[in-house]
Design brief:
The complex is a heterotrimer. By secondary structure, chain A is mainly alpha-helical. In chain A, about 65% of the residues lie in helices and about 0% in strands. Chain B is an alpha+beta fold. Chain B has a 7-stranded mixed beta sheet with strand order 8-9-10-1-11-20-12, with helices on one face. A 5-stranded mixed beta sheet of chain B has the order 17-16-18-13-19. In chain B, helix 7 runs antiparallel to helix 10, helix 9 runs parallel beside helix 15 and helix 14 packs antiparallel against helix 15. Classes of the chains: A mainly alpha, B alpha+beta, C mainly alpha. Chains in contact: A-B, A-C, B-C. Chains A and C meet through helix 5, helix 6, helix 11 and helix 13 of A and helix 1, helix 6, helix 7, helix 8 and helix 10 of C.
Chain lengths: ~300, ~550, ~325
């Protein structure tokens, strides 16, 4: 759970680019950038696994059907845990819960952030002041302890509670970024033109401004999805999720409860953790690649193979 | 640039060096049990979930864990694992009066408190009367049956009963620690007093206490000469199971009371001197709320009992540590001698899916379109079960039970609650089914069965029941239980127990699933004298008092 | 000066927000979770004073209106009366927290300083030698490590170095039975021994951020005109790197440091949990487990205040170091 890699908020260099163009630009960028390509492929693999888990894992993840404490073998790729459940099935089926949480939270958080950040930039004055203060305050209060307290009072929650809690507490960083970018765009000519035309503020915001911030919004979605994965698995790991759902975090919870590392069942703990790391890496790579796309100075210096001409 | 790399290397090397040297220094670890009595150390591993508050009041449940058995002792030791075999402690002998309405103890002479003052009958009478004056000190409720306790001379104590209650001998003689009158008579409020410098008659003195560790040393003036043989006890405070388990696994602690997952891989495989024994003590049961209209039908309860594959619950839910229970409600092998074999035989093979289905059919149920048993009025056999969410083994067991019951068309939904919510619902009867283990253990199956079946311990739904949570009430059963408490005859007691077991298999007031056990680990590298399944001279965990005193008196360095 | 006052104002505002959040949370949750806790306190034998203090803290038995409760709560918080701990009854919350603070400060403080120094150093070097081996390897590696959950790194370290190789202990802060806290060498060695793996876990996961942030800001700084000027003037490379570029690039990093504190905190909580390291984070999780809400509340406020103080200090330090703000005063 490290800070987002972009220490400097990136501005989209192009001024006024319609939404469709922006997406095509993104697509091209992904193909050309190695990091983006890796990230996308990883993400796609996980999405496929989440959509069709029964294709890869033929066992049920929840029935205690097998002999406990088996090591990795051909029939049980990751072995079985202390309850006789197939670990590979657990990991595969757990993908769904994790992906759902990360995508929903990513979207919801970004949505809230867009709302608040752009509104603050556009409404200005008292609104801007209040919303900015709210954002800054929430930004500074340590997120994870707050989540722990909320989840503790809710006596650990269902997945829905987890999603709601994480969304309501993690929008502030993105809101700040979006607000500062929206502020710089506020006085561009085409927006002035729209104002003179008599368009309503809401129209300007939704149709003219937000599309130009697409790359930042997409980057924010990726960041928030990454944090959603890490935060939700951490909460599930310490027992504040719903221990009866099948998810990587809850598998880790059971592994920790059964001292998996000390009883010679390391795969029980290592495998789900590795998956979290891989999914997180997918989001992080994509995010980093977007950073480079936005800020050309950060792109890797490619050593030219051509001889310097005289 | 090169400067930076060099610093980095030195820094890492330095850290590694510091780490490794410190590591090799203290990994030689345990200093337990050297041959000379003066140096022998026993380290305890019992996770209590909190740091120590350094209070040693033996009559207060917040502190008695650390003082009874070590520092304070009872009148008589009663061994629950050997059918109530007695060992005289502060009382050298005792006898019941006419009609069992009075109990007279002869107090042992020559016993001294750790400050040198002689212990007499006055101290014993004082202790009991203190409990009468401050009812919160009467943890086992002995004054509900006593009418007076008086000392005569220096060595006789007579106790008169307001109602005959022979089983209360256990609570009076075994479960009551005796405190010194000359110190406690000056304490303003004994109920809340912490007692940080305890004076007792027991084998150990409290020599040092910090929130993270307590050190006890042998009492040189203990009344049993040559005992205790282990000179020092270390009792660290653990807040997590994992840390406590680790100290056992690497030999730093020798006496454990821990739940260890996969104990073979975690513990016993590490050293041939590491052993464990889990004596079964109480039933863990599926408890129906008998006020529920569907569950009040005995056939439904019988069906549930036959549908559960207890062996599977034991193997998968409890890792095989807790053996399957039986419908007669007798914990085996601890109380096997009390088993009514004909009652058990009439119950037949405990796991019988076909019989369960037949019973349900005869009760008017048939499988609905969703597979759940429904009766003619459309009522379905679907229930919620309250369970303690913190007990991962109970949660796992419930999953097995859920699958077992589904196979006969009964649908249950586990509700994993926090301890407090669970207790609130259980005590008040706000549940349909519950997974329960009783809290009190005693030297015979009577104690547990009485808690389950005595209607005096029940209460209407909405009020707190003391222990009869299922709200079972049957005057004939009450009569049996009352009769038991009036007699000291073993034959009569067994006859009543046989009838109680008949009640269990024919009326099915609750459904025992597995037998709860004591967690107990021991390390024989440098210490001998441990209680084992072949020599169960005391209940083995360190928190069981006053059994812990017996263990401490038997242990010796090799 | 005005800047410092503004930051101080923000600090007070955030503190008030955290206190208010703390006040509202148990009252907003469906079925006041504190009710069950009060029953436990009753049965533990708490005296009326203790119970009244707890009622004000959690809003049970609201005989007072919400506003009156709020002011009573604020008064209690500001006078340091955080109530009695349930899991360590009858110890007061403040006495329980005291012991844990040192462990966390030690672990987190030392690790953060190390991560800052090492991370910034490596970031500077990597940016200076753009396209070099360090630069092409580090960024992708650390992008990936920034996505690894803290507790997983901790578990891997426990598995490899604690259990398989037996190089370091993997539980606790020190051996409670053989060592007693004090200023002696054996205790110190014991503490270092036990702190090594947790510190490594924290270091590994946090260092990536430092390196990458520093690298990115250095790269931007290196493109500035004054750096080009210094190079044209013929100044030695390392001088430009340290005195010109790094000095200016480090300022935003300080801001980043303050912001990343939140993540260090969550990392510390998880690492302490896996290693059962007796610090504040571990105690927080134990309090949650035991439904010890007074302790949990107080720890949450403690962590928040610590983060706020650190950020305030970083802000003021930045203001003092940045010649631009100095000139503006």
């Amino acid at each position: 759970m490290a800070m987002p890699v972009a220490g400097v908020p990136t501005e989209s260099p192009a001024a006024h680019v319609p939404a469709g163009h922006a997406l095509a630009r993104i697509g091209r960028a992904i193909r050309s950038n190695r990091k983006a390509a890796t990230g996308t492929i990883l993400l796609l693999i996980f999405v496929l696994i989440a959509l069709f888990p029964w294709v890869i894992a033929r066992d049920s993840p929840t029935t205690d059907a097998y002999q406990p404490h088996l090591g990795a073998s051909a029939t049980h790729l990751l072995g079985t845990n202390a309850y006789g459940q197939d670990l590979f099935a657990q990991v595969v089926w757990g993908t769904r819960n994790v992906l759902i949480i990360s995508v929903v939270v990513g979207l919801a958080t970004t949505g809230v952030a867009v709302l608040i950040g752009v509104a603050a930039a556009y409404l200005g004055g008292v609104w801007d002041g209040t919303l900015s203060v709210l954002t800054d305050v929430l930004l500074v209060i340590p997120l994870f302890p707050l989540l722990i307290v909320i989840a503790a009072y809710a006596h650990g929650g269902t997945t829905l509670v987890l999603i709601a809690a994480i969304t309501l507490t993690s929008w502030s960083y993105t809101a700040r970024q979006l607000r500062s970018q929206a502020l710089t765009l506020r006085n561009r000519d085409y927006l002035e033109a729209a104002r003179v035309r008599g368009e309503r503020r809401l129209y300007i915001i939704v149709v003219e401004v937000i599309p130009t911030m697409t790359s930042l919004i997409v980057a924010s979605f990726l960041t928030n999805a990454l944090y959603a994965v890490l935060l939700s698995s951490s909460l599930q790991f310490i027992g504040l999720g719903d221990p009866n759902t099948v998810s990587w975090g809850t598998t880790l919870y059971w592994a920790e409860n059964n001292a998996a590392l000390q009883t010679g069942e390391p795969l029980w703990a290592i495998a789900p953790g590795a998956c979290i790391a891989l999914l997180g890496a997918a989001f992080a790579l994509l995010n980093y690649a977007f950073d480079e796309i936005g800020n050309p100075a950060l792109r890797p210096v490619r050593r030219s193979k051509r001889v310097r001409s005289a | 640039m090169r400067r930076l790399t060099r610093y980095g290397v030195i820094l890492t090397a330095g850290l590694l060096a510091a780490g490794c040297s410190a590591g090799s220094g203290s990994s030689s670890g345990s200093t337990s049990g050297k041959t000379s009595t003066n140096n022998s150390v026993l380290t305890i591993s019992n996770e209590n979930g909190a740091l120590w508050s350094c209070g040693f009041n033996p009559l207060n449940s917040s502190y008695n864990l650390l003082s009874v058995g070590f520092i304070y002792e009872p009148l008589v030791y009663v061994n629950p694992l050997q059918n109530g075999k007695t060992v005289p402690m502060l009382a050298s002998s005792w006898s019941w009066g006419a009609g069992n309405k009075s109990l007279t103890f002869t107090i042992r002479s020559g016993v001294k408190w750790s400050d040198g003052t002689p212990l007499t009958a006055a101290d014993v009478a004082f202790t009991f009367n203190l409990m009468k004056k401050y009812p919160t000190l009467d943890l086992t409720g002995v004054w509900s049956v006593l009418s007076s306790v008086t000392a005569t001379g220096t060595s006789t104590v007579t106790m008169d009963f307001s109602s005959v209650a022979v089983p209360y001998f256990y609570y009076i003689a075994d479960q009551t620690p005796i405190v010194p009158q000359h110190i406690w008579s000056t304490i303003a409020n004994p109920a809340t007093a912490t007692i940080s410098k305890p004076v007792g008659s027991g084998p150990y003195l409290m020599s040092k206490c910090s929130p993270s560790n307590i050190t006890y040393t042998a009492n040189p003036h203990y009344w049993q000469p040559g005992l205790p043989k282990i000179h020092t006890l270390q009792y660290p405070a653990f807040t997590s199971n994992n840390t406590a388990n680790d100290t056992l696994a690497n030999g730093q602690a020798q006496w454990g009371a821990q739940y260890i997952p996969d104990i073979a891989a975690f513990y016993t495989s590490k050293n041939t001197n590491f052993h464990y024994w889990f004596p079964p003590i109480l039933n863990v049961a599926m408890v129906p709320n008998l006020t529920n209209p569907l569950l009040s039908n005995v056939k439904v309860r019988e069906a549930i009992s036959y549908a559960i594959n207890r062996q599977q619950v034991s193997t998968i839910g409890e890792s095989g540590y807790e053996p399957p229970a039986n419908q007669a409600g007798i914990v085996t092998p601890t109380f096997t001698s009390s088993l009514n074999s004909s009652a058990l035989a009439s119950w037949g093979n405990g796991f019988n899916v076909a019989k369960a289905k037949t019973l349900l059919e005869s009760a008017g149920y048939h499988p609905g379109s969703d597979g759940i048993m429904t009766n003619a009025s459309g009522q379905k056999l679907q229930f919620t079960v309250i369970n303690i969410g913190d007990y991962s083994d109970w949660v796992a067991s419930m999953q097995v039970i859920q699958q077992d019951l589904k196979a006969v068309g009964i649908s249950i939904t586990p509700s994993n609650l926090s301890n407090t919510d669970y207790q609130a619902d259980l005590f008040n009867g706000h549940y349909q089914l519950a997974y329960v283990e009783q809290y009190t253990f005693g030297p015979g199956p009577y104690y547990e069965l009485n808690n389950w079946l005595n209607s005096a311990d029940a209460a209407p739904v909405g009020k707190q029941a003391a222990s009869d949570y299922e709200r079972y009430s049957n005057p004939a059963t009450d009569k049996l239980l009352d009769e038991y408490s009036t007699t000291t005859s073993a034959a009569m007691q067994q006859s009543i127990l046989n009838q109680l077991q008949q009640v269990m298999v024919s009326q099915v007031p609750f459904i025992p699933v597995v037998e709860g056990v004591d967690w107990y680990q021991y390390d024989t590298t440098s210490i001998t004298g441990w209680p084992t399944s072949s020599n169960p001279y005391a209940q083995p965990p360190v928190w069981a008092f006053p059994d812990n005193e017996q263990v401490l008196l038997h242990l010796a360095p090799k | 000066m005005r800047y410092a006052l503004r930051r101080l104002g923000f600090f007070v505002l955030t503190l008030w927000a955290a206190l208010t959040l703390n006040f509202l949370l148990p009252r907003l949750m469906p079925g006041n979770p504190a009710l069950a806790m009060m029953t436990k306190f009753h049965s533990a034998g708490a005296n009326p004073q203790t119970l009244r203090a707890l009622e004000t803290l959690f809003g049970v038995n609201n005989q007072q209106g919400l506003i009156a409760q709020y002011f009573g709560y604020l008064h209690q918080m500001l006078t340091g009366n955080f109530g009695t701990s349930l899991s360590q009854f009858p110890a007061s919350v403040t006495s329980v927290i005291g012991s844990a603070i040192w462990w966390t400060l030690g672990l987190v403080g030392v690790t953060t300083v190390l991560a800052f120094i090492l991370g910034t150093g490596l970031g500077i070097v990597s940016a200076w030698r753009r396209g070099g081996k360090l630069d092409s390897v580090l960024p992708p590696v650390f992008v990936i490590t920034s996505a690894i959950p803290y507790f997983w790194v901790a578990m891997v370290l426990v598995l490899v170095f604690g259990i398989t190789l037996h190089w370091f202990p993997s539980q606790g802060g020190y051996y409670v039975t053989t060592d007693s806290p004090g200023l002696n060498l054996t205790f110190f060695q014991d503490v270092v021994n036990h702190a090594f793996l947790p510190a490594m876990a924290l270091l590994i996961t946090t260092i990536g951020t430092w390196i990458l942030t520093m690298r990115n800001t250095m790269i931007t700084t290196l493109a500035e005109d004054y750096v080009r000027m210094a190079r044209a003037k013929g100044l030695p490379g390392w001088r430009i790197m340290l005195d010109y570029a790094a000095r200016n690039a480090m300022l935003p990093n300080l801001v980043g440091f303050a912001m990343s504190l939140g993540f260090v905190v969550s990392g510390a909580i998880l690492v302490e949990y896996v290693f059962n390291y007796p610090g504040v984070g571990y105690m927080l999780l134990q309090a949650v487990d035991g439904e010890d809400y007074p302790l949990m509340q107080a720890l949450f406020l403690l962590i928040t205040v610590a983060v706020l103080v650190a950020i305030l200090a970083a802000d003021i330090l930045t203001a003092l170091l940045d010649p631009r703000t100095r000139a503006a005063r």
